[in-house]
Amino acid sequence: MRTGPRRGLLALAALLAGLVFFGAAVVSSTFGPASGSARIPGLFASVRIETDSHGLVTVRAASPADAFFGLGYAHARDRLWQIEFQRRIAAGRLSEILGKRLVETDRFLRTVGFRRAAAEALKGLSAAARSQLDSYAAGVNAFLASSRARPVEFTILRVEPERFTAEDCLGWAKLMAWDLASGNAAGEIRRARIAAAVGAEKAAELFPEVPEQPTILRDDEWKTMSDFGLPASDSGNSVPSSPDSRVPGPGFWAVLEKRFALLDELGFGGETVGSNSWVIGGSRTKSGRPILANDPHLGLRAPSVWYLARLEAPGLSVEGATLPGLPSVIIGHNARIAWGLTSLEPDVQDLYLERVDPKDPSRYFHGGSWRRFEKRTETIRVRGGRDETLEIRETVHGPIVTDVLEGAKRLAGAAGGAPVLALRWTGLDPADPTTESFLGMATAENWAQFLAAASRLTAPAQNLVYADVDGHIGYTAAGLVPIRPRADGMLPASGTGEDDWTGYIPFGSLPRVLDPPRGFLVTANNRVVSSRYPYPITADWPEPYRARRITERIEAAPRLGLDEVTSIQLDRLSLQARDLLPLLLGTRASGTSAALALEKLKSWNLEFSPGSSEAAIYAAWYSKLSDMPQDELKDVPSGGVRSRFLINALASGSPWCDDVRTPARESCADFQAATLSRAVELLEERLGPDPSNWKWARLHHARFPHGVFDRVPALRRFFSLDSEAGGDGSTVNVGGYRRDGSFLMTDGPSYRQIVDLSDPSKSLYVNTTGQSGNVFNAHYRDFLPMWRDGRYVHFGEGPIQTLTLEPSPP
């Protein structure tokens, strides 16, 4: 009589066991081999891939070519989906797997032409660099051929990875260069949009110059203008008159701005992209040898943009941060030298307003004559939809980016047809030996060899810091920086020829120094040199708060060791708050809660620590203060104005404080009181009425979105990652956040590195999320709490798993 229920339970148990077994089989099918051996065609000798307890990889090979092969194999094993997805981004082939929603993005990617630029760059590479790329791609393909392990993304999306090529490597390099440069063109669009709304004079007030000091190099550390053979007068970098009578209206710029923001959701071009690096000479360190620190700030992603690896082969011994999809160690050290990098912040993009022949729209005017647009046609394949044909026009300046706009003529706001804007960018130049630059850095043994490698860097232009075991420290700027005869790059320029670039700053004339007497160098995207330098690098430098704080900390310590340098890298004290807060503390608080909040700020230590209620109050208030120009900008979002504008406005009692939408004329005191009340309302709404619960980390989270599944609620919780976070956009341990009220941190320290040249084996590292891109792997997320808490790892810790790749017999 009881056999029925018992059989039911047995059947249910069998079903559950089957599901567990099936689930385990699915999970195991996603893991590539970490130990054992495999026969691999294409190798000249055995390659050992050692994986430590943190997932950090060491590749040991009998030749550099086999070492790059092994790195390609390891990248494919641990980050195969990332490599495939990145390749599709660069090629503008997202619609093939994700459908119609990504067609617009593919149009923009194809129009800029990242993959096309990669193919051109490949033609001009040296034989050594081409061999490096081919060996790496062969390693990726060897994994594809020898293992059926595939991350679950391939199963869910029903996609098979394609063979990897050297062009795929360079395509991703172009995207990374865009990540550090796209703010130039986007800034022109934003400034043009604001100028169209409020006029050029008022728009200029929103973009004030930042303080000149501190500069990376002091005036006595770089060559004088006479050394360059240039006059000490003005460089001729004046703002041109309007290039065309057909000035677009705000609606046109709004649509174009949205097109340039399409890549933001893929993790490119965030608001706080930047970096810190500094190098301290032996005269200031406890060991008597240099220490070099670096933490690049990029879009936060799952998996991390970086992958830590060490390569060991005759003539090659280097470790540090690599980019999956590329064979080079981008930041790191070898047995003799260490290096780090930050964005130089140069203006390397210009939008040119082309003059089209009204009688023949296939022609544009340049250099005194009419020229034909160059045209190319590309086909975008769309999953579940019809293929799209895209015609792309180009001028001497570059691709016409306005051709991707729908309804451009209607939105132009001027007669005579839609404006035609071309994009000029150093990353689209046909010659680009940047990959040779990083190969050279990996094998450089001294300053001269390091400079030789740096001279081949094209895009992105970088600040490079250097240290070696002999005790030398140095800095050089590297990369292509345009010379403009007339325009300053702040607004779109005339395409008729007068505003064309006349060349690039010669590498020998870029700022550099070896062994400065002060014994240290700091770069944090701040101004490189004073206005005495003859070549304009940009007219739009970021605020120097991080550089000031790092310098302040170094100068305050008599001697520094790894502990002190680590403390600086994790510093969360805001010099922006030190500048702005005194202007706010005299505010007349309206209501008990606002008065309590103001009182707490009076005793704040200015640190954006995760548990700080004062930091939460300040950030909420700052978010409301940043809305200052919104009443006049109307439907043009301010995007969160820079603190320099707020400081200037509040200190001077600026008319910007008045809300033009009301009949009364509000003073800055009125504005401060009103915004404080709104900030308190925000905190009460988001965190509750009890001020003891107003903690910065409860308001401010770091988000690591998965490139595809972050948009799928059922999958987001598994593939995307989230962490409490401290800091803000001005702190050394940066924690910048979106200015949309979410306080979401989407950009930040993507990697941390500290190298002590007294013993490079003690070098400290940490990634953001983990070494693996496999969501089922513990290394997918195991670095995240370490990154959050400021902990580091060494190479070779814990049990080592060894995978040996053996040459396959002919």
Key phrases:
810 residues, 6-stranded antiparallel β-sheet, alpha+beta, 11-stranded mixed β-sheet, 34% helix
Set out the fold topology:
Layout: H1 3-28, E1 36-40, E2 47-51, E3 57-60, H2 64-91, H3 95-98, H4 103-112, H5 114-123, H6 127-146, H7 152-157, H8 166-179, H9 183-198, H10 200-205, H11 250-260, E4 274-280, E5 291-299, E6 307-313, E7 316-322, E8 329-334, E9 337-343, E10 349-356, E11 363-366, E12 369-372, E13 374-380, E14 388-394, H12 408-411, E15 420-425, H13 434-443, H14 447-454, E16 462-468, E17 473-478, E18 482-483, E19 493-494, E20 503-504, E21 512-514, E22 520-523, H15 545-556, H16 562-569, H17 575-584, H18 592-601, H19 613-625, H20 630-633, H21 643-652, H22 668-687, H23 696-699, E23 701-704, H24 713-719, E24 721-724, E25 744-745, E26 747-749, E27 751-756, E28 764-767, H25 784-789, E29 801-807
Helix pairs in contact: 2-6, 2-8, 5-8, 9-11, 13-14, 17-21, 18-19, 18-22, 19-22
Walkthrough of the structure:
The structure is a single chain. By secondary structure, the protein is of the alpha+beta class. The chain contains 25 helices and 29 strands. It is globular, with a radius of gyration of 27 Å.
Unreliable runs: 18-22, 228-245, 407-416
> Which range does the strand content fall in?
15-25%
What is the strand tally? 29
Q: In one word, what is the shape?
A: globular
Average pLDDT: 90
What gap, in angstroms, lies between the N and C termini?
Answer: 68 Å
Instruction: Give me the side-by-side strand order of the main sheet.
Output: 1-29-2-3-6-7-8-9-16-17-21
- Output the radius of gyration: 27 Å
The helix/strand class is alpha+beta
Q: Helix proportion of residues, in percent?
A: 25-40%
How many DSSP H or I helices?
25
- Biggest pleated sheet: 11 strands, mixed
